[in-house]
Amino acid sequence: MKNLKYLAIILFTTILFISCDDDSDLINVDVTPPSAPRDVFAINGDNRVDISWEENRERDLAGYNVYFSYDNYEFELIGSSNENYFIDYEARNGEVYYYAIASYDFDGNESDLSAETVVGIARPEGFNQAVFDYLKFPEMSGYSFAEYSVVPFNGDLTDFFFENYEGTFYINIWDDTDIQDMGETADIYEVSEAPVGGWVPLIPGDNVKYLIVKIGHTYVIRTLDNHYAKIRVKEITPERMSFDWAYQLLEGERLLKRNENRTRNLSEQTLRISSR
Question: Which end of the chain is more exposed for a tag (fewer CB within 10 A), N or C?
Fold first, then answer.
């Protein structure tokens, strides 16, 4: 009888120990998601949008999920990244996309979407294009962004043309177009948006607006049909000018590279998230 009593005590102690151990395991399960990413921004390229954000600092962070939307309401998962960087190679030129980022940990906990979405609008671009002095090569002196090609200086689709006037070099545009010198830049991507004002005025009696062109400067142009473009001058010789360019396909859209300020707070609306 005494032995049975000891056996019962040992059995009870063992069950109690196992129960406590199981409770301990349950208590240690991580159900806390990491914080939502911050400072999301997009760089628009040719049929691509590069998205970056501030790196999370959680020690159990496993990666990030990238979501996009056409309407800033219903978001779809388009990919994941182990870095604070993702490239949407499926972005189409001229289409508006909204991007938001969520972080997740090794236990599968996912954060809310980043508090703000960022707008991406891919657009065509080109590099090392050349136009020639219209006084010597009138058929090869202009450029049309809509055609992505060199055109005559006086063509119907010409957006600007190059001139060497007695050793001084000019970018010329017709009176129904606008242009502005945005100053010296490191590359074509540095200028993010077309300006609202500050365009070169038309001198009374002229039908052409013009600027002295400088190597390393970026110029923004508003075309006749209300599209915005930019060129960065790379080289000038007495006969030609070479440049990089980018052109926004959406009429009236001033965004040429990235949009750090035109974001929308997701806490102001109800979101639906679906996986692709």
Answer: N
